[in-house]
Amino acid sequence: MSENKIKIAVPLMADEFAKGHKPEYLFWVGSAGAFDDRYKKVTREFVKILTYLKVDYAVLGTEETDSGDVARRAGNEMLFQMQAMMNIEVMNGYVVKKIVTCDPHDFNTLKNEYPDFGGNYEVLHHTQFLQKMIDEGKIKIDSGIFKDKKITFHDPCYLGRGNGEYDAPRDVLKAIPSVKVEMERHKSRALCCGAGGGQMFKEAEKGYKEIFIERTEEAIATGADIICTACPFCMTMMTDGIKYKNQEERMKNYDVAELVSMSLGL
């Protein structure tokens, strides 16, 4: 299906609720998905997939504020609780039951930390959602646009070690005809990209090498053409690493959703 056949009109939760309709899923866009130029592309590709699948979903739009993940990791507990309670009030007002998000940090916060404040939802990371759609036969990838490409997957900390999810992204990649290779450190032993826990927003500490460079070198050592990520922070760090190592001509960084969307011809 070509892009011009898909007319994207992202539904707003407020509009749907006013019509007496309660969407099955809330798509939590997240701060990166809304404001980061590179990750906005991931948001668009995932929306294309949702539209292609005719998923019953909506977004909060301007009613969505930051999940509070970075505030809590950085030690500003008061700000986190204010953000969490505001979001929960809005979501509970719309009787939200299921949430899907492309950000592992928001996934972790919404799933594991919001229940303490009365926010109880079934939360899926977008790789888990895509795995579900593939398992149910709703996504079938016949395209061979990546069949000659070698792909390595970088585990996001908050999806992998934080929530024990290693299979979903790999199962989705298995459905895309291509060559898969693992970095020396992967799954529970995977190296952090260096941006989580608020590190994205502070200066590097003393040391002989930054973490994202170490991780990029591991990816380059696999001979992969594509570093696949599933997190906005990881995407920023891996993209920077590719540039730092002067590999832009040889190596690309894509999110899992982008690879699925491109493989479906959306």
General description of the model:
This protein is an alpha/beta fold and 266 residues long. The chain folds into 2 domains: 3-132, Rossmann fold; 141-264, Rossmann fold (3-Layer(aba) Sandwich), CATH 3.40.50. Helices cover 42% and strands 11% of the residues. The strands form 2 sheets. It has a 4-stranded parallel β-sheet with strand order 2-1-3-4. A 4-stranded parallel β-sheet has the order 6-5-7-8, with helices on both faces. The chain is globular. The model has no long low-confidence stretch (mean pLDDT 93).
The total count of helices amounts to: 11
Radius of gyration: 18 Å
CATH topology of the largest domain: Rossmann fold
CATH architecture of the largest domain: 3-Layer(aba) Sandwich
Which structural class best describes the helix and strand composition?
Answer: alpha/beta
Mean pLDDT over the residues: 93
Q: Which percent range fits the helix content? A: 40-55%
What's the layout of helices and strands?
Blueprint: H1 13-18, E1 25-28, H2 30-35, H3 37-52, E2 57-58, H4 69-73, H5 77-93, E3 98-101, H6 104-113, E4 122-125, H7 126-135, E5 150-153, H8 167-174, E6 179-181, H9 211-221, E7 226-229, H10 232-244, E8 252-255, H11 256-264
Parallel strand pairs: 1-2, 1-3, 3-4, 5-6, 5-7, 7-8
Helix pairs in contact: 3-11, 7-8, 9-10
